[in-house]
Design a protein that fits this description.
By secondary structure, the chain is mainly alpha-helical. It contains eleven helices and four strands; from the N terminus they run αααααβααααβββαα. The protein folds into two domains: about 60 residues, 434 Repressor (Amino-terminal Domain), CATH 1.10.260.40; about 140 residues, no CATH class. One of its GO terms (molecular function) is DNA binding.
Length: about 260
């Protein structure tokens, strides 16, 4: 198979099918795409029906519809979790400026720089400086008119005991648990807590299922991000924690 040709290849079919899903989610018709590509609508229809095109064409369509090729590839492999793990330098930078991390996460989710500037009450010049600062760490590319191209592909992850976790994780977890306590009666909120006795086999199975559940919905999050606009998504958080543990009840005073 020609290195530049992706037709008649299983992964190619996944890529083109995912492109069709992106077009549908963004309400871009074949006619719209044909107009942007300066070709006939028949040509575009043939491209998707025959699944015969080269990588250069796929890259071009990705640019036109606003999705990176790497995000498209991740979308095509929707059953697989795709992570972007921050480097030590990136973590140190965000640990000293958590607000910058919040802005980057929003950009990564698809929120526009203009919208963020409005929310954070930043001037266009200040927003440009923020984007340039993040760009220095290889996470995005600043384009004209304060637009960006995200270079960090996948769900953003950082080390459990790294600089960023030490700076923000514990206080955020406490804030999250306090919030859950307030909204626990809502139908879209849940919390489970138990202290029981399990066999080693059951413990192993439970840990594996927790890992699988987290991976499943991180992969789903990446898919939703690539198929839906930012205003169709809702920020959520979950916390799975499991360990062999026994409460020390003797820490409490025994009263008559």
């Amino acid at each position: 198979m020609n290195m530049d040709q992706i037709s008649q290849h299983t992964d190619a079919k996944k890529l083109l099918k995912s492109l069709q899903e992106v077009l549908k989610s963004k309400k871009i018709t074949y006619a719209d795409l044909a107009l942007q590509m300066e070709v006939s609508e028949v040509t575009v229809k043939r491209l998707f029906s025959t699944q015969n095109c080269n990588l250069q064409t796929v890259f071009r369509i990705c640019d036109l519809v606003g999705i990176s090729f790497f995000d498209l590839a991740a979308l095509a492999n929707q059953d697989k979790e795709v992570d972007y793990v921050l480097s030590e330098d990136q973590e140190k930078f965000f640990a000293t400026n958590p607000a910058m991390f919040g802005i980057f996460r929003a950009l990564h989710r698809g929120v526009s720089p203009d919208k963020l500037a409005e929310v954070w009450k930043l001037s266009s010049q200040k927003m440009f400086k923020v984007l340039r600062k993040i760009e220095q760490f290889g996470l995005l590319e600043v384009l004209p008119k304060n637009q960006v191209r995200i270079k960090a592909v996948g769900n953003i992850r950082f080390q459990h005991k790294g600089p960023l976790a030490r700076a923000i994780l514990r206080p955020q977890i406490m804030q999250f648990l306090d919030h859950v306590d307030v909204v626990l009666k809502n139908k879209d909120v849940c919390m489970h807590s138990a202290e029981v006795e399990l066999s080693k086999k059951s413990i192993t199975e439970l840990v594996e299922e927790i890992h699988a559940l987290g991976a499943k919905y991180r992969a789903r999050a990446l898919r939703d991000k690539n198929l839906l606009s930012a205003d169709q998504l809702q920020s959520v958080r979950w916390l799975f924690a499991f360990a062999p543990f026994e409460t020390n009840w003797q820490q409490y005073e025994l009263k008559d």
